[in-house]
Write a structure and sequence with these properties.
This protein is an alpha/beta fold and about 260 residues long. The chain is built from ten helices and eight strands.
Length: about 260
Amino acid sequence: MFVDSHCHLNYSGLVEDQAAVLGRARGAGVTTMLNISTREREWGEIIATAEREPDVWASVGIHPHEADAHPEIDTAGLVAQAAHPRVIAIGETGLDYYYDHSDRDRQRASFRSHIAASRETGLPLIVHTRDAEEDTAEILRDEMGQGAYPGVIHCFTASADFARIALDLGLYISISGIATFKNAKDLQATAATIPADRLLIETDAPFLAPVPHRGKTCEPAFVADTARFLAGLRGVSVEELGATTTANFFKLFGKAQHWANG
C-alpha cells in the first residue's frame, strides 16, 4: 500500500492514457495519488480528474517557473480555489534559482502568497526548492514566525543542513526516484536518517523515473520501486515503509482523510 504524494497526471506523457496509468498504479499497490498543479490554466482539469477518480486528490498553486506569468494570483485567489472538497494542498510553490524562468523577487512574492494561503486554509504547502536553499529557508522561517503552517519539501535534493531546518520547522520531507540514482550518495545518506514520522514518497511523474525505469516516462506505479529502495536504505521492510508513509500522508493532508471517511 503506497501513496504517490506528488505527481502530474495531467501532463504530457500521462494524460494521453490516464486511465491505463491509473490502472497500473492501482495494480502496483498505489492507493492514493496527489495530482499537483503548476499554473492556473491546469486547475480546472486537475480538479476534474480528482472529482472523477476517488483515489486522486488535487492541489492548487503556481510553480516558481510560472511566477512571472501569474502576477494576479494572490492569497485570496488560492484560498477561494482551495475551498473545493477535492483540493487538499497549496502548491507547488517555492524558489528555483537553477533555471531562473521567473524573476527572483516575483518568485519570492508568490511563495509568500502561497504560504499565507496555507496558513489561512490549514492546507499543507508543497515546496519546490532548487539552488535556493538559503532564501527558501529564510522565507520558511520568517513566515513560520508570523503563524504556523503545515508543509512538505517535495522531491528533496537539498543538503542535510536544509533537511534539519525543514524538520525543525515541523515540515515533512518527500523522497523521489532521484534517491535511487547511483550518483545520489548524499541524498541517500539524508534519506536514511529522516525521522520515520516525517517521511513521504513520490514520483513527480512524468519526470525522474527511478531505477530500474531510468529513461522511461515516470508514472505513479513507480513509487513502489522508490519505496523498495528506500526501505532497503533504512533497514525496514517495504511493507513497513509503505504503511508509515501512507499514515504520514493522511496525517499531513488531513482534508483527504476527512473526505475519505465522510
